[in-house]
Amino acid sequence: MRKTIGAFLIGIILVEPDYALAYIDPSAGGLLVQILLGGIAGIGVLVKLYWGKLTKLFRKEKNDKP
Fold first, then answer.
1. Assessment of whether the complete model's pTM goes beyond 0.85
2. CA distance 37 to 29
3. What does the alpha-carbon distance between residue 51 and residue 57 come to, in Å, rounded to a whole number?
4. What are the pLDDT tens digits along the chain (66 aa)?
């Protein structure tokens, strides 16, 4: 299985051209920045929503029973 995957990857590398005729306009860069910032904001909201459950998971409970 590993030899098959290795041979496939080597074949792709040998067939792949050395150059690409592509153009990325400035709006594509802006879109990537928006995706990144949106993901960071989403993770922040997710942490805020579940913060109590996260702290409860790592907190030790005190037993005051005599």
1. no
2. 12
3. 10
4. 778 888 888 888 888 777 777 777 888 889 999 999 999 999 999 999 999 888 888 887 776 565
Sign, CA dihedral 35-41-43-49, equals: negative
Q: How far from the centroid of its chain's Cα atoms is residue 55's Cα? A: 24
Residue 28 CB contacts under 8 Å (≥ 6 apart), including other chains: none
- Distance of alpha carbon 66 from alpha carbon 64, whole angstroms: 6
Q: Distance between CA atoms of 54 and 56, rounded to whole angstroms? A: 5
Question: Cα–Cα distance between 36 and 42 in angstroms, integer?
Answer: 10
Per the listing, tokens 């409970």 go with 61
